[in-house]
Amino acid sequence: MPLIVIATLWSVSVPAVAGWDLRFDDEFDGSQLDRSRWATRLIYEHETLDHLNDEAQRYRDNGNHVVSSGALALVARKTPTGWESGMIRSLQTFYYGYFETRVKFPKGRGIWPAFWINSDYDLEGKVSWPPEADIFEYVVNGVEDRPDMIHSAGSQMKGEHVGFSYVDPKFNTNLNDFFAGHPLNDDWHVFGFLWLPHAYTVYLDGRPLYTRDFEWSQKPGVLAPPAHVILNFALGGHWPGRYGIDEDQFPQSFMVDYVRVCQFAEKPQPGDCPRGPFTPDLSNIRYSAPGDIARPVLRPFLNPRDKNGTKLGVAIEGASALTSPHFLIGFLRAPGSNDMRPLGSTALPLSGLGREQGAGGAQLVELDVNKKLSPTDGAVMLGLASKADAGPTETIPVFCAMPDGSKTDRQFLCPLGP
Q1: CATH of the domain at 55
Q2: Residue 274 lies in a domain
């Protein structure tokens, strides 16, 4: 069994306080998609990219994410302007762990639902590829790729040899395909992904399909940014659409019952990792992992000493981790619109000398907008960018501090507080 093979890479003497904790979970129990957990576009092009390569569909929000009866339906249909479908991408990111989802595949020629992890932003807001790991791609073109097959593979460096420590007899390592011997779109299935620093294992309904060597690297020896989780329902293109799309089967849905991510912790954390009937035993598995990227935290405010109301301040925590010069950028969003006009910018000090320090060692930066702002002008938004004249789509990911001391999920701009 691959769990035993992997466990030999780490000590199996687990302290009593150590264990696997639930770090991310969506059971889709509500009536709509939780947008605080999920984005509905790919991360590229400032999180607006709606397809990859020559796929036929475009990811949309026109009823393409339907939550009901405890499941998410990613709905694909043909419209007068072309194919549209749905996808979800987790805003939370991860280094390693056990990932599990329960899904029901659609039917018909030309479909391409997938469950995968992809590299997120680095600290400077840049994205790159590789790495990537595809837990499954369910490609049906009706000839070479059929309803009884699953494609599963991970990225590899040029010239890199991929070693497998376990392979199911029905998994072909040349094609990276598993041949189930029966249609996989007749019922629900559970897919598991045990991702460790130097290897991963893919499971189908508790059955290990393969274990392969794998490092989460941008290039040899360079750790990539953490991963986000994607489930998407793509269509067409040269692979699944080689023999056309079976239009009579649409609209239809790629169904997702739940998505869970568990991670190993040496110290106890709230929330034990749920173990369903197909979840592998993780009790003897442990690993060491870096923490997530410590992105800057912004707390914008009006300077109370400024009677004219023209000086905007931001308390920035973690700016010292940035590796290049950055600027505080301000924008004014018009009421009832996403239109933004610039309010100005100011450079962040590169040195701690002469900084005004706030509570908790936060760096205080001030932006003079030379105009008294009122609530009727619109919403003031502030962010960080690598150049003084950056637009709203050129800011880097940050966290926004809330009045209660909490922080938001990753955002590009933070609203001005009271």
Answers
A1: 2.60.120.200
A2: no
